[in-house]
Design goal:
It is a single chain. The chain is α/β, with parallel strands linked by helices. It is built from 11 helices and 20 strands. The protein has a single domain, classed as Metal-dependent hydrolases (TIM Barrel), CATH 3.20.20. It is 27% helix and 26% strand. An 8-stranded parallel β-sheet has the order 5-8-9-10-11-12-13-14, sandwiched between helices. The protein has a 7-stranded mixed β-sheet with strand order 3-2-1-4-18-19-20. Helix 1 packs across helix 2 and helix 9 runs antiparallel to helix 10. The chain starts with 5 loop residues before the first strand and ends with a strand. The chain binds zinc ion. The site of zinc ion (ZN) has 6 residues, from loops. One of its GO terms (molecular function) is N-acetylglucosamine-6-phosphate deacetylase activity.
Length: 386
């Protein structure tokens, strides 16, 4: 991949013309320019902490190949994503171990390794209740188990960085503490936990609510309930699927208001993201329908969503379209903030000497981002012009 020395464009925040210079995989400087001929906007590369699959590839399918992982990463680059966490949902230990091996094998390529910042295990330590469990298979749901995690972490060569679990089990707090001590971040999700269990989990080190407001009972007591309780815990960050289907605008507005510095976007994309509208077979949902607007539902009951078919880019475009965020706020929620969460809350500098040379250049068409170039570690990994 071609090494890039410098790029010019309009700064996504200040809207002023700039030149960024790169030194290998880092930014070596940012210079303001009087004028430039380009109308491209420069922003940090997008960061998606929840990707189950993309464009025909599902990390959870048993026939996943190493090439599939590489292909999926390249398709994400095309969509502006420079860093992501492949996400594995509840399955048998053998199936999880097999998928992890494929991902780790793909990481032998340094650019793939740099793009895959870690693996997100979503399950199997989640609620058994219908609703919170979502589409995760009941037969493999189990209580949090440190030995299970340790064995998988060995297979993953330390690359499991995030685990979504429910703290409604006795063993949860002990496992949370062990994970945090071993540099694995813990998210609460797919949960039916009570207020005191949530509070103790946060005290033990849980730091995120995974796709808050989804994977929940269809009806909840008005209060208390686990959505209010998680929102009220100041140490918890919140991830949201802002595809326009998973959460009403009012709910997203409230989440963002309660957690102005600690909310970020995830796509939670399945293999159907990036595919044309049509009817498909899903490994977990049977026959599913994908509309041209990107809504993925069960064919037999179109009221029920069958996961997300949105890219992170379209999630951030939706926030702008719905007037919930400006372009620069939406980009931050899909880049700087998830990166800052991964850095355990450390502030992530943008376009400063020493910050990562992970950048997207794009043209803005109303609320849409037309990706022109994606640069990872100072290398051109996607160009619409080639
Ligand atoms: Zn989920």
């Amino acid at each position: 991949m071609e090494k890039i020395k410098c790029v010019e464009g309009i700064h996504y925040q200040s809207q002023r013309p700039i030149r960024l210079t790169f030194d290998h995989d880092l930014i070596s400087g940012m210079e303001e320019l009087e004028e430039i001929s380009s109308s491209l906007i420069i922003a940090p590369g997008l960061v998606d902490l929840q990707v189950n699959g993309f464009q025909g590839v599902d990390f959870n399918e048993p026939d996943l190949s190493v090439n599939d992982v590489v292909f999926c990463t390249e398709k994400l680059w095309e969509n502006g994503v420079t860093t992501f966490l492949p996400t594995l949902i509840t399955a048998s230990e053998q199936a999880l171990s097999d998928a992890i091996k494929k991902i780790i094998h793909a990481c032998e390529d340094p650019l793939i390794a740099a793009s895959i910042a870690g693996i997100h295990l979503e399950g199997p330590f989640i609620s058994k209740d219908a609703g919170p469990r979502g589409a995760h298979p009941l037969e493999f749901v189990q209580e949090p188990n440190w030995e299970f995690i340790s064995r998988l972490q060995k297979v993953a060569k330390g690359k499991i960085k995030l685990i979504t679990l429910s703290p409604e089990y006795e063993s949860a707090n002990d496992v949370i503490k062990k994970c945090v001590a071993e540099q694995i971040q813990i998210a609460i999700g797919h949960t039916a936990a009570k207020a005191d269990q949530l509070k103790r989990a946060a005290e033990a080190g849980a730091s995120l609510s995974t796709h808050l407001g989804n994977a929940a009972h269809l009806s909840l007591p008005r209060h208390p309930n686990y959505i209010w309780d998680q929102l009220a815990l100041d140490d918890l960050w919140t991830s949201m699927i802002s595809d326009g289907f998973h959460l009403p605008d009012a709910v997203m507005k409230v989440f963002m208001s309660v957690k102005p510095d600690k909310s970020f976007l995830v796509s939670d994309s399945t293999k159907f993201a990036g595919l044309p509208a049509g009817t498909y077979q899903s490994p977990i949902g049977g026959t599913v329908q994908l509309t041209s607007t990107g809504r993925l539902s069960m064919q037999e009951n179109p009221d029920l969503l069958a996961g997300s078919a949105a890219s992170l880019k379209s999630c951030l475009e939706y926030l702008i379209h719905a007037n919930l965020a400006t372009l620069s706020q939406a980009i931050d929620m899909a880049s700087v903030k998830p990166l800052s969460y991964l850095a355990k809350g450390e502030k992530v500098s943008v376009f400063q000497e020493g910050s990562r040379a992970d950048v997207v250049l794009f043209e803005r068409k109303t609320s849409k981002m037309m990706i022109n170039k994606t640069i990872k570690s100072g290398r051109l990994i996607y160009s619409s012009e080639i």
